[in-house]
Amino acid sequence: MTITVLDTYPAMLEILRAPRADRPALLTAMLTPAAGMYRYFPGEVDLVAMHRMGSGFPLDRDEERCLDALEALRAADAWGRIGRALDDALAVQLAATPSITAPDITVLIVLGDPGDAHFMGPTLGMTANGSVSGYLFLNFWPYQENLARLEASAVHELNHNLRYGPGAVVWNPATVTVGEQVVSEGLADAFARQLYGDELGHTRIGVPHLHDDAVFEKVVSGLGVTGMQNFAAWVHGDATAARFGATPVGLPTGAGYAVGNRLVDAYLAATGRTAAQALLVDSREVIDTALAR
Fold first, then answer.
1. For residues 35 and 74, is the Cβ–Cβ distance under 8 A?
2. Dihedral angle sign, alpha carbons of residues 149, 155, 156, 161
3. Which residues form the DUF2268 domain (predicted)?
4. Residue 24, exposed/middle/buried by CB under 10 A (0-12, 13-18, 19+)?
5. Contact criterion met (CB below 8 Å) for 117 and 62
6. DSSP assignment, residue 236?
7. What are phi and psi for residue 165, nearest 5 degrees?
């Protein structure tokens, strides 16, 4: 099993310096090696449109600002640090669960959009996706807090990728519950914290609500909600739900991450397991064990 971190720095540099009319084609070429992350989408996927939807860097403005930010990522050795972190984390995970089948993984690192108010504000300049087996997507704006968490952010997404990998936990978009995603976020954070400590391992958007009992009770009330179309508000919060046209439920940004951490921490404390050992645990077991304490 190999982890390939695509060297997107030269391509992004070329795109941001190219005539605007040439940029979509150059971006498509950069994204094509990771196009498999959209394999469950119906029909042919417009990679440039997906880039925009994912808060990727703009093709028609903010060139100098983006070039400066790109250099900040390069200066921080983002590509090297993420690659080393993923290799180290995979070794830890395989030692804890040697029976899992780890896929080859392609990692796409992209600079974010400084003109996207939701990305730069509520989501704190970071979006990512590790749920599609074989692919990790990491989108950063180089806030210092994000640069400090490059490794932990990547390892969090790796945990998702392995949880939903071949022969592992099945994710059915129609029947999956809010509880599964909330637990998966808690497990991924717990794995990152196992490797990098609480300060770096917690996903930033969840930290303000870790000890908010009202948020905890609200999210717990929705753990049985099914269907991915309902997850944005329960897991990411109302601001993200509004961004993508979903219905708000009265939760702050990152609520599901905070609650997932509390549930998983209670489960790990009750069982004595490490986060790595709990990679494939059934979310219902985590929830029942945690709420029984």
1. no
2. positive
3. 100-287
4. middle
5. no
6. I
7. -80, -175
